[in-house]
Amino acid sequence: MTVEQLPATSREVRLASYPEGDVTLAHFELGESALTEPGEGQVVVRNDWMTLGSVARDQMNPDTKLPIPVFQPGVAMWGRTVGTVVRSNSPDLAVGDLVEHFSGWREYAVGTAHEFFKRDRALLPGPEYFLSQGPTAWHGMVGTADVREGDVVFVSGATNGVGALAGQIARLRGAKRVIGSTGSKEKIDFLVDELGFDAAFDYHDGPVAEQLAELAPDGLDVVFDNVGGEQFEAAVAVASRGARFALCGALAGQHGTGDGGSPRLPLMSVITKDLTLRGFATLHTPDQIEHWNDRFGEWLRDGRIVFPHTVVEGGVPALPEAFVALLERRYSGTVLVRLS
Q: Distance between CA 15 and CA 38 in Å, rounded?
């Protein structure tokens, strides 16, 4: 195997300052760090793909309530990434191994071998498939909402990386009807024609509660909420007795200064309808991720599921602009940036 020549430095994206409103390119800075040969027990990984998620917006707040570290100004950011081992000084990983890790937003990652998780290249169609948000979608739709055969399901923010897989998982679990919300006619067609949703609507087209009631005249049994705000309120209004809510995100309140992250909750409706509202934070164990990858690979081979994703070219320098575009909801599916 040809040994890859290491550059003297590795480019990385750092947080320039904490945003007080909308995230702009001014909140990021591109820098370089020295790249050296690995020390005892260490490896050097060339980052090949990175996924972008809206949760990083919350990590740009110094007072976030998330159970994960926030980004620090002047320090390289971090995120979920897959890459190839190009130097190894550890018996646990060899040059050429595919690994998944969290030292993204940079071209190369250096660390002890236990910080990197080896993946089987043959399991999925490409290394980028290991960056699906399927573990979160499965956790919410199955482990939290307990979707069942015959359920009527609503997924808000259905074209993002989590929602697009959550809706497909509901169908695979026997849901009778799956409805998604999104922000354009083009994305409605994407949900129905490409992902197999039974119906979808544009939340810009009128009161969400009216649109949702028209598409689910008999009520909702399961709600997978990525958005919060008006869409959460509408789902409570349309929910059937005993409906189960999996609360995954609050996109309506993550970008800008709106109050979409603080929807009104009609307590009497929750009480009289016997609703279950469960939030969940997805801190997966290695076993849970392996279990998803095995299932995902099988479904892909059988043609029972698709992996909706958008590929952004341009390497590390493209990451800030891609992240701003993600927050502005310009993409569909999982957003993947090709780093090498």
A: 26
